[in-house]
Amino acid sequence: MTAETTTLTTSERSSTAIGRVARSATEIAQPPLVLSLLLILASLLSDQWMVSIWSGIIAALFICLVPFSVVLLLAKRGQLTDHHVGDKKQRRPVMLWTLGSSLLGCAILSIMGAPQPVWGLVGGILCGIVALILVSPIWKISGHAMTLGGATVSAVLMFGWLGLPFVVAAPLVCWSRVYLRDHSAPQVITGFITGVVAFGASYTLIVG
Fold first, then answer.
1. pTM, whole model, 2 decimals?
2. Contact present, 173 and 34 (Cβ < 8 Å)
């Protein structure tokens, strides 16, 4: 099957009713947006949440939103394939400067005295970034699935049954990545499991 045929098939899939659902799930649950929401929610678990919420906002900015804004800009200029960074060869450079921005954010969080729930999430995110840096040049593991796997286990650990929306969203987002042919099923499954292990271990070790 040629690349042109594959692109056409993917376009046709996106234009159907089911395809629009899949595309919406993929766009709404973009990793930077999901992780930003989680980081801010985690900051609210502190007894002094009026103060600690700023740690969630700072973490979201430096780890998620600033790098994502750069990706959007580069994609608009044609320097990246798209805002999902579909070309695996482009993923390592993107994740490397995302890691740099994240470490700068961590330095600020240390000065601020961020609460443990925020650090528990940050640890999982950093593990995920490193995993993408190592694996992406040879295999296009799913960042969406990794994020939703991590979000699922983190939300349950933080909020119990109130984390149910993340549990429900996870299979929908993972399905959307395969349906849109952005990833294969093994890439999505591996990403999801990696997220569960990385975020679950990080949160458990740091928060206890």
1. 0.88
2. no
